[in-house]
Amino acid sequence: MRSRFLLAVSLVAVGLGLGGVDMPGDGNGLFAQSTAQTASPASDGTQLPKPDPAFKGKIGVTFKDSTPDYPLPVKAPQGAPNVLVILLDDVGFGMCSTFGGPVPTPHMQKLADNGLKYNRFHTTALCSPTRAALLAGRNHHSVATGVIIEMGTGYPGYTGLIPENAALVSQTLRDNGYATGMFGKWHNTAEPDISPAGPFNRWPTGLGFDYFYGFNQGETNQYYPTLYRNTSWVPQPKSPEEGYHFTADMTDEAIRWTQNIRAASPTKPWFVYFSTSGVHAPHQPPRDYLAKYKGKFDHGWDKQRELTHAKQLADKVIPQGTKLTPRPSEIPSWDSRSADEKKVYTRLMENYAAYMDYTDAEVGRYVESLRASGELDNTLVMYIVGDNGASAEGGLEGTFSEIASLIGLQLGLESTIKRIDEIGGPTSEPHVPVGWAWAMDAPFQWTKQVASHFGGTRNPMVVHWPKGIKAKGELRTQFHHVIDVVPTILDCCSIPEPKLVNGIPQKPIEGVSMRYTFDDEKATSRRTTQYFELATNRAIYHDGWVACARTGLPWVTLGKDLALMQAAPWELYNIENDFSQSDDLAAKEPEKIKALQARLIEEAKKYDVLPLDPRFSERFDPKLREAGDPPTAWTYFGTSVWLPEPIGPQLFPRAHTITAALEIPKGGAEGVVTCAGSFSAGWSIYLKEKKPYFRYTAFDVADVTIPGTVEIPEGKVELKTEFTPDPKSKTNGGTLKMFVNGKPAGESKLERTFFRHGLEPFEVGRDSITPVDPAYKDKGVFAFTGAINKVVFKLTRE
């Protein structure tokens, strides 16, 4: 009590200008004794965010007899490098010239010539899982990402919700004094969270990135992206006619961001995650790149694998004696294809190669901006050439619309050949056929999704860090996995692994640092065991051996079941002597198979791999990610609703009504009342020339416009549509009727409907990106010019 009284008196004295008043105590005055506040908890760097610094100054009665100690921001360790992680998408081991492939990648080669190439680096065989493992330093099931986020289910290894006890490297670097920026494809926010309501804690800016510019889901149209800046949707800055392409746009943003960081702070290191769209479908390179590849692949996929294999041997990218694995019987030979098929398939491959060429050029443009600014020498570049193998999701015939393939619809050759000259342009969403994907994975078996074989999981990597690596242009052959990237970064930056983040104890990082390989070509591999699993395509690597089993075919995305999984034969490879998994030893080594199967189960239990689930496209069902009963009605107000389609009303192919309460001004109104999807697949209700219209289109197999038969009056109007499924339809068809103020206003059959319509949003009051109906393509977003008081979507039966 006495001390509080003296404190009050002293404050009054200061306030009255009586700073010289002698205060009781030891003769130095009450405040003269306070040279420092109580120290903050000590930190060895394993607690993040770091505790506030202790005050080390002196507090006297006035500032004249006090010593300040301003709290400085957290600083990275002295000399810590910038970090640049480059991740390409859907690039097979045998695609890029740097690793013996047919597509020139001079910018990748330039980094490799001054750095290191890795030929035994591995991913998870699919997008979201690899990306989560890459950033977390933990296995994909350990961070709840056993499948892509659109397929999340209610089991710990599969929710798509990266847990709070697995902080990403972006969080660790940011809290240790780094600026952090992410550009391009994210694909690690659970689909229900990709909405204006969030939550945003698992968006890039909620997981340690100061800045995000890119797209949130698995792919986007390069000419018309669904684009976010931080947590807000933003329109693209210019049109394709004005030269817009997303890859160039994200590169521009990355260059500007990096230059501004350096302008603001000459010494602060930065971390950039440069996650390109290339070469994930839709394959959309600029036209001038496509022309470069005319005729380059006329020899076909079988010959291309032979050429690539020979080049890989000649370049010593693969060991001498490595065999080229044969073509599976499920993939047709090139010679068996018709002239029309060859014409289409070569054009699709030319387009695919052009996209890789263009992607390398844009990556190079960013890297060269760092070289020009003097940043590159002390930048740790980890360039991962694909998040999985080349994709077989285009089916045996390739496709003009890859989204259709993902939902189980193979459009076939006829759809592509009639629009062959559009391939790669803004009106296409193309994908190569399986044969070319397989060729791009030479010398390995299989493709993306097939986690059992290296065609799905072995991706090249280049590491470049002139200030930290003495070796130049050398090859490294140690067995490593994408979870080893984070511990390598922390090791090179002299930053400890965090044990406590935001008060939450952390799972141990499961990767190992690769730094031991930087200057020791013959170092013994420190990764001795690694499991692989994706939709029950599974494998276990241990001490030089791989046991594996494949479930079904990667281009057949529906109908995989437990019986198919259980019937899958097991294979065995000694990859110390058999780089390409070409010599199956299962029949000769049954005991080794059993031992490795037992180890796989141990790893599966340890890392939340169980329960095994072979389903693929079936997991797109949103009911798997909803708590309680799924909604049957949705109500929206106003003219500015913008949601990803899976967050909006789930309508087709179910029976439903859409009821819009409108106010039409004098002279009438026009514009989109509500819509979902894009030019290639979607539905739209709009007014034009005083009449209502309904449009449904999907992937060249559905194309219906229903014109209204009555005019829309002025004043308050109820516009309603009613869809009734046909129980006999095998294609989810039915009848759609329109009503104006309760009176019939038009109807038609919809022969085919789908539960998803691509990656463009659900909206009320406009159609923001590409028009569902070309009838209003010249009207911009075709915003509604009246008032939309309310729109109610209701399922009429389940």
TrEMBL record:
Transmembrane segments annotated in the record for this chain: none
Low complexity: compositionally biased ranges: 32-43
Class of this enzyme: hydrolase
Residues covered by the Sulfatase N-terminal domain: 81-492
Keywords tagged on the record: Calcium, Hydrolase, Metal-binding
Known EC number: 3.1.6.1
Domain of life: Bacteria
InterPro entries per record: Alkaline_phosphatase_core_sf (IPR017850), Sulfatase (IPR050738), Sulfatase_CS (IPR024607), Sulfatase_N (IPR000917)
Annotated segments matching region Disordered: 32-51
Gene Ontology molecular-function annotations: arylsulfatase activity; metal ion binding
Protein family per UniProt: Belongs to the sulfatase family.
Stored PANTHER family: ARYLSULFATASE FAMILY MEMBER (PTHR42693), BLL2667 PROTEIN (PTHR42693:SF43)
Protein name: Arylsulfatase
Organism whose genome encodes this protein: Caulifigura coniformis
